[in-house]
Amino acid sequence: MPFKSYSQGMGARLAFAIATTLEPQILLMDEWIGAGDAAFQAKATRRMDELAEKAGIIILASHQPDLIARTCNKLLELEHGRVKRFEGIGPS
User: Fold this and answer.
1) Which CATH class is domain 3-88?
2) Which of 3, 36, 63, 77 is deepest in the core (most CB within 10 A)?
């Protein structure tokens, strides 16, 4: 079945499954999973937590302060392409 015939939710599930098959040493994430139903989001969050735990370095772009606080130990905040603040946060 061609990928373009998948619903948005099925496409997101397939893309997520492919993207998370490896366990990288450096994990780049732009936001967190926002697509799919509540059950998929919970499953995706558990998988991302597992990957984050195993990765040596995580670079996370997010607008979610709770996710940043839970996942990161350093914060680099940009505003209009310039560093607004860079500081340690949470446990290191």
Assistant:
1) alpha beta
2) 36
